[in-house]
Specification:
By secondary structure, the chain is mainly alpha-helical. It has one domain. It has five helices and no strands. Helix 4 runs antiparallel to helix 5 (about 95-124). The relative contact order is 0.14.
């Protein structure tokens, strides 16, 4: 495995590691205030980006497109804004980072749908 698929799986694994560490910390301290941030890091960071990587591994022509690279960059930026933004928001701070991260994550998924549909159309 190489290229975009590899990048996705490495970053997804790192997000999973950070998410698990956060979950363990919450369990040890019995303070689950940041559970929403933990859940979104695991879902958007680990699960979604790993699935993107698996798709790009199975459909390497899709991974070669400029749009796929933009999609992964947006997904990464979305995770890096969304999870901390949710954490800050839960702690009573300005929710702007969570909002920005949510919108970037949404755009990333729109781009992924476009990549999937266009790669299917080009293989038909």
């Amino acid at each position: 495995m190489r290229g975009l698929a590899f990048i996705c799986l490495v970053t997804a694994s790192l997000y999973a590691l950070v998410g698990m560490a956060g979950g363990i910390f919450m369990g040890i301290t019995h303070d689950h205030t940041l559970s929403p941030a933990h859940a979104h890091l695991n879902l958007v960071g680990w699960a979604s980006i790993a699935l993107f990587g698996l798709y790009y591994h199975v459909v390497p022509a899709a991974a070669a497109s400029r749009l796929a690279k933009l999609q992964v960059a947006a997904a990464t930026l979305g995770v890096l804004c969304l999870a901390p933004g949710i954490g800050l928001s839960v702690l009573g701070m300005n929710p702007a980072l969570a909002i920005v991260g949510s919108l970037i994550t949404f755009v990333s998924m729109l781009l992924f749908v476009t990549v999937v549909v266009s790669s299917r159309a080009s293989n038909a």
